[in-house]
Amino acid sequence: MATERITIPIDRAGRLVLPKSIRDRLGIQAGSEFEVLEEEDKIILKPVEREPKLVSKDGVLVFVPEADFSNEGEDVVKKVREERDRRNW
Predict the structure, then answer these.
(1) Whether this model's pTM surpasses 0.90
(2) Do the domain assignments include residue 40?
């Protein structure tokens, strides 16, 4: 287990931003959930591990993601086109 000691600020709304190196190493993405544990003078954030949801469709088990990624591809295409158009002007 890698140990990394970093000081990070908390904003007025009580939010923390985890450094990208930690998010990448632990596979944390937007929408990830954490269990919050308080131990004496420590706060521990533990990623919640969810079991994949499988449903039977026509006799075949199919994975159903918790998040809706159906429009994600469209958003990427839109951003790429906007960036391309911005560069061409």
Answers:
(1) no
(2) no
Residue 12 lies in a domain: no
3 state SS of 75 = helix
**Residue 78 domain flag:** yes
Give the chain's domain count: 1
Residues 2-13: b if buried by 16+ CB within 10 A, e if exposed: eeeeeeeeeeee
Q: What does each C-alpha distance from 51 to 8, 39, 72 come to in angstroms?
A: 31, 27, 22
Element holding 22 (H helix, E strand):
helix 20-26
pLDDT tens across the length of the chain (89 residues) = 557 688 999 999 999 999 998 888 888 888 888 999 999 999 998 888 777 778 888 999 888 776 655 666 677 788 888 888 888 76
| Residue 3 placed within a domain | no
Residue 39, classed as helix, strand or coil, is strand
Full domain range(s) for residue 72 = 53-88
